Protein ninG, putative
Amino acid sequence: MSEQRRDLGHDVGRKPRLRKAGVYPTMTFRRTLCPHCRTKLDPGQRIHSHCIAGYAEAEGAKAERKRQKQARAAARVEKAETRRRKEAIKTIPDLIKEAQVAFNAFIRERDRAKPCICCGLPLGAGEVGGAFDCGHYRSTGSASHLRFDERNAHAQRKVCTAGVLAVL
């Protein structure tokens, strides 16, 4: 049956089975160009004799670049591992500090179009570095239970938050 298939052309595209026929392919050196200067090589030659020093130097530089790249990758992995470990051991004050930053940003965004809660002047949202902050009516030091209460926090001009009143 298989001979019928061969006769019908079903075997087209397959590599011939040379080893069964007793024919073995010869191993030849296929490189025809010098790896350093990219010019033609003589048969049996792997590199030009005058290219050996330059090629060795180039390969050394290549190996150094590879080593540096691997060192950077290892440092990146170590830094990520350190960051993960630090995240896992955060204390309550660290978590409160993060929550306070997010809460203050929310209050600043909520009150962006409103005037200052202390003096009634416009907040000046377009100024570089921001002209207002989130200020608490009762300070977080004296009333920590009101730290994240939206009724206790409002947008204030930086001058008013600092307690310095401008002479108008």
